[in-house]
Amino acid sequence: MEAFTTHTGRAVPLRRSNVDTDQIIPAHWLKKVTRDGFEDGLFEAWRKNDDFVLNRPERQGATVLVAGPDFGTGSSREHAVWALQNYGFKAVISSRFADIFRGNSLKNGLLTVVLPQETVDRLWELTEADPDVDVTVDLEQRQVRAADVTADFELDENARWRLLNGLDDISLTLQNEADIAAYEASRPTFKPRTIEV
Amino acid sequence: MGRTLAEKVWDDHVVRRAEGEPDLLFIDLHLLHEVTSPQAFDGLRQNGRRVRRLDLTIATEDHNTPTLDIDKPIADPVSRAQLETLRKNCAEFGVRLHPLGDVEQGVVHVVGPQLGLTQPGTTVVCGDSHTSTHGAFGALAFGIGTSQVEHVLATQTLPMARPRTMAITVDGELPDGVSAKDLILAIIARIGTGGGQGYVLEYRGSAIENLSMEARMTICNMSIEAGARAGMIAPDQTTFDYLRGRDHAPEGEDWDAAVAYWKTLRTDDDAVFDAEVFIDAAELSPFVTWGTNPGQGAPLSASVPDPASYEDASERFAAEKALEYMGLTAGQALRDIKVDTVFVGSCTNGRIEDLRSAASVLEGRKVTDGVRMLVVPGSVRVALQAVEEGLDKVFKEAGAEWRHAGCSMCLGMNPDQLAPGERSASTSNRNFEGRQGKGGRTHLVSPQVAAATAVLGHLASPADLTDVSATPTPAGV
């Protein structure tokens, strides 16, 4: 995973609640067997409309998505995170993320930042009024800064440490091999098995 | 202090607990399908890793599989490539696979329970959000992303933060014609699509205890649509009776030991939930969605709501957008909404009991002109059972299409899709924009409502069929 320390970029204000992962990346894109090449599928249906915020010239090259509440609901498809990253997004800000999407994002180094809706509202107003305003998402300080907006955010220390160092979860878990083996040895015999080995 | 069901199952799977770290949980059963696994297998290959526990892993093909002409090569080359990738990966790593054409093939969440692999007190994961289905057995079951799929393949564990618990108590008796689907749609409308966020829901109360396993699976299946991590129901005699004798259910002494353990999997009387919701079953009626998320639903007898009636600005905006997309106007009676397509199937309502209840409504009736009805069993086993009971004949005689098992029109990854602007009554789980095909409009309904809607051509319940003869009048009489 790519490490995330701090990022500064222009923003895309997305004034929509309940943006489900079917909107982020429609199902027909899920037939691909790689982790890249999803950028053209991002918000595919909405992008057919020239007025959609992502299509506007002033939003080209923006890297921070400021979204409405309940972002990433629905399907567990990690392709939604890959699509956002493939397109160029480094961070997503919302007042509430769906659990699975949040987990997926943090495992891929896409920083999902939870801020109160009032702060999201202020970021929307700010970035709509001035598309060139820089938004900084600082994981070291756990802070979002943009013009006169400064907002602290929470992220548990363990997740933050893994992101800052770009650590691979599987390698970390395998350091506990002895614990896993001990647990396996203690499992009851009635537990189901898919095949005899 | 006592513990909840979810806490008991969680505690029994902690491999490692350390201050400031998520718990490392052992996973008893890992289900795989073709869509969310290819990148995970690639990750294993790149790092020279193997599948740690092949005996706790099983794969099936469901999302891409066609429901017609399954003996012919799959027409869509990209779908075919994805299925072939799963076959290659399973062969290379030694994973048990039930491919298209196999008698155990079907929607992953139908296959696990019917094989008896889903058992009380187990942890079950799958790269699919509807893994919550398996919670109906008192299992702790959650959907995961592809990175986590790779993690479970490599380690048979997952680091996870302990969720909060929410009790959803449904007391009383469900009125006639009101099914588990109506109940869960009403629950989601009540708590919202984010209401369960961070929680494991436990459905309890007399109405839940009286439900069959199939109905319990329908309820737990849609926990994710309320944003929950998982949904659970305490195992009881209904659960044990369902499991006994299934392929992978324990036998002999193991069965006795298992049942003794399973009986301990109940929330203690003095346990405290982090949140509680109470629902009176007697007040429920057939429930359908009008909008573009599963929380935008109302009783069938109601009208399309006026977005102006929402106090919250973002909900108001969401309702406006939903009505625009769905082509509906505020105040329109839900019963007046005409549909083009009816879909019966999916991991929510593709089990034998669902097919039985749809067939019981259709028996002796016809799907009305201009409506196409697809019946897609959740698995080959469900299809075989339905044929044995003659249900396929009921559907065919009514003019419905009897298809092969798979996810089908629930998400339209195979050719079963809505055309732009087409409207469906669907027993699936998501009414998102474009979910069943670009521009398609979805109303989520129960199997009974789906069948009655097919007969009348507009959203309807079996109670509306009183003036439509169930016995065709012989010609010349």
From TrEMBL, chain A:
Residues 1-118 form the Aconitase A/isopropylmalate dehydratase small subunit swivel domain. One of its GO terms (molecular function) is 3-isopropylmalate dehydratase activity. Its EC number is 4.2.1.33. GO terms for cellular component: 3-isopropylmalate dehydratase complex. It comes from the Bacteria. It catalyses: (2R,3S)-3-isopropylmalate = (2S)-2-isopropylmalate. Gene3D superfamilies: Aconitase, domain 4. The keyword Isomerase does not apply. SUPFAM superfamilies: LeuD/IlvD-like. CDD domains: IPMI_Swivel. It is an enzyme of class 4 (lyase). Pathway: Amino-acid biosynthesis; L-leucine biosynthesis; L-leucine from 3-methyl-2-oxobutanoate: step 2/4. One of its GO terms (biological process) is L-leucine biosynthetic process. Keywords: Amino-acid biosynthesis, Branched-chain amino acid biosynthesis, Leucine biosynthesis, Lyase. Catalyzes the isomerization between 2-isopropylmalate and 3-isopropylmalate, via the formation of 2-isopropylmaleate. Heterodimer of LeuC and LeuD. This is 3-isopropylmalate dehydratase small subunit. The lineage of its organism: Bacteria, Bacillati, Actinomycetota, Actinomycetes, Kitasatosporales. The gene is leuD.
TrEMBL record, chain B:
GO terms for molecular function: 3-isopropylmalate dehydratase activity; 4 iron, 4 sulfur cluster binding; metal ion binding. It comes from the Bacteria. Keywords: 4Fe-4S, Amino-acid biosynthesis, Branched-chain amino acid biosynthesis, Iron, Iron-sulfur, Leucine biosynthesis, Lyase, Metal-binding. Its EC number is 4.2.1.33. Residues 7-457 form the Aconitase/3-isopropylmalate dehydratase large subunit alpha/beta/alpha domain. Heterodimer of LeuC and LeuD. PANTHER family: 3-ISOPROPYLMALATE DEHYDRATASE, HOMOACONITASE, MITOCHONDRIAL-RELATED. This is 3-isopropylmalate dehydratase large subunit. The lineage of its organism: Bacteria, Bacillati, Actinomycetota, Actinomycetes, Kitasatosporales.
